[in-house]
Amino acid sequence: MKNERKCEICRKHKVDKKDYRFIDSCGLQGKVIVCHWCFGLGDVAISEIMRDELDPEDFYEEEIE
Ligand SMILES: [Zn+2]
What we know:
The chain is α+β, with helices and mostly antiparallel strands.
């Protein structure tokens, strides 16, 4: 069986990277295992994803033309 852990931020995508976040409102106090989508986003976007269960991919569509 393949071990596919989900991203600790969005819980939607496969984990890809190790990141360090300190966002009190989200309970993040250091190391988090994230997908490559969440990895590239700022703290504000990360808190929105955790609070509203958004898909981090949507944040990129707004930025990339
Ligand atoms: Zn993610």
